[in-house]
Amino acid sequence: MPSAPGGPRLLLRRLREIMAEPVGAQDRLDRIVTQIAANMVAEVCSVYVMRGDGVLELFATEGLKREAVHLTTMRSGEGLVGLIASTAEPLALSDAQSHPSFSYKPETGEEIYHAFLGVPLLRAGNTLGVLVVQNRTYRVYTEEEVEALQTTAMVVAEMLATGELQALAPVETGIALRRPVYQKGVALADGVGLGYVVLHEPRVVVKNLIAENVEAELSRLESAIAEVRLSIDELIERGDVAHHGEHREVLETFRMFAHDQGWLRRMREAVTSGLTAEAAVERVQSDNRARMLRQTDPYLRERLHDLDDLANRLLHRLVGRNLVAERSHLPENAIIVARSMGPAALLDYDRSRLRGLVLEEGGPTSHIAIVARALGIPAVGEVPNATSLTEPGDAIIVDGAAGEVQIRPNPDVEAAYAEKARLRARRQEQYLKLRDVPSVSKDGVEVTLQINAGLVVDLPHIAETGAAGVGLFRTELQFMIAERMPSASEQQALYSTVFAEAGDRPVTFRTLDIGGDKILPYMQAVEEENPALGWRAIRIGLDRPGLLRAQIRALLKAAAGRPLKIMFPMVATCDEFERAKQIVEREKTHLANHGHPLPCDLKLGVMLEVPSLLFQLKEICESADFISLGTNDLMQFLFAIDRENRRVADRFDPLSAPMLRALEMVAEHAQAAGCQATVCGEIGGRPLEAMALVGLGFRSLSMSPAAIGPVKAMLLETNVAELNALIREELKNAGGGETLRPRLAHFAETHGIPV
Questions:
Q1: 249 pairs with which residues across the strands?
Q2: Which of 63, 225, 540, 725 is the most exposed place for a label (fewest CB within 10 A)?
Q3: Which positions fall inside the GAF domain (predicted)?
Q4: Options 3.20.20.60, 3.40.50.2000, 1.10.10.10, 2.60.120.260; which CATH number does 435-751 get?
């Protein structure tokens, strides 16, 4: 099948002319297949389009019977065309009818054709259809012919992407590119958001596909590759953390891919076939993505992110654009879709226009999740392939409670979620009415409800929710969102603002909880086999006392004349707490000697999250003014589960007997020693779990602002004495790792307690 004079470049130019002609969608597609057949000296050229229901439909043909158009259909995986769609790989056969996947469609009249060449129509790795040429003779297609048809397929795929063919598809299905997509991820921040997609790192939309000067395009490609290689080399040499926090290992992987000769050769070949440099990058990466999405090896699938990032950097170099979206042009009802994000990036967006957040990465305890909850933005993480399944401006729904994402939802689904959002708003109004109602149980037990915070934007929630104060202020967030280490005066200014916003309500400041997964962008990362069990939090503070002293001094200065509560995280032994107390005493003495006013009342406490403290409860409760349970880490360490690992994160229930017995032990020792005990972990903000905590004896809970209303509503309907008797009886009889969740849920249901 030799190409006609002029080859693929002439074909691409002719296709560009056809794309610009003022004709209808069907006429345009008919002219395209006729032109491809003529250029490639083929008796048949056909385009099959993937519909929204996953069925391939013949949309146009030159050579097969015209009456088969929009009549012939097949499922993905059915026949040769279906095989190409399912594998996203080209298929060249000298005798198609001898292939085991051949499926005869009598209405097409294709039985007289033997040679077959088909390639997928790909865009961003998604299969939109299949392009086929056929010949009567038995012949072998060359690699150059396969390459030429793949290049042509990219142009046809872009036509599909414009949506022009949508009108030719059945109304009930549409074409695959625009079909509704449901994705299940992990709930990060509660709420329902309806809006339109904004890609955090917008893809370059390649509009100029066809090269005018191949030599010039090759030169542009080589220059862009050299620039990307140089930028990666510089990042590695400087030891900086790259965009989105990739560390050295990731950058080394980038460097390896940037020098991969197979990748570079395929892009050069695509340019030689007639594509522009950016179209060549897009085509090769779309092929890579299609193949790697079908891999079962998790390592290979993860390499897809590396290739995507590298291709994205290369495309932005070629078109001279920044990697990050312009924040100032955010549309109304924006829902950000990203592979991953740092908390600082989210804070750059206009909060008044944000309606939701969708991430391919990031779990419930990630920093971005904490910030999303603080801002009240519905968020879902670990959504597979989110950035490639969406286009800017697509309608999208985020259900932060269920961890669900609906992309391009049909009207019924959109209406259902709109109603869900309205119901949620009405519930929030009901909770708002409880703002000034004392948080006292049905039988008169008072429970203090406070909020968790970490940013100035969190603080108005104190008054909005009627919270008693801030039970956990995460001071590390200020460090995480800054481009450099905050100075002592900057820290003091933040803490002074927190006190001013809180008014007469108490605030508990947690000292820097960095290390582990909380790497500051301007600090040298320490390689550790298991960062969660390594050098972090109070361990860094005691080993680098200058950092801790500066923070303590800023807190003491900011609290001048006011009560101050300081809490130390990740304490594993009483000795660590005593050493931290000594640092505070030295700073108090220093400030007093220099005439600085001190807090009128200073209380020092520990965050109980390391299981070793469970066996030092008597001593720590006598030494500390208060303890606060960080149930996220305590649960993780108690059951040896990585809370970011989806395979094990949900294997154990916080309402299981072992966990509840540990919590009961803490409550009893604290009460005996007159040491205040509070819970600031995630379970304090879930009504059923909060009910159990109150039943165990905890009288202070700290939670996300959105959880105050539901937890207070639960408390108002709870008889704590009855609940306490139930839990004690159940724990006495529970065996092994049995969970009390069903029994507690039954208690709530029979007593009319909203959980």
A1: none
A2: 725
A3: 24-170
A4: 3.20.20.60
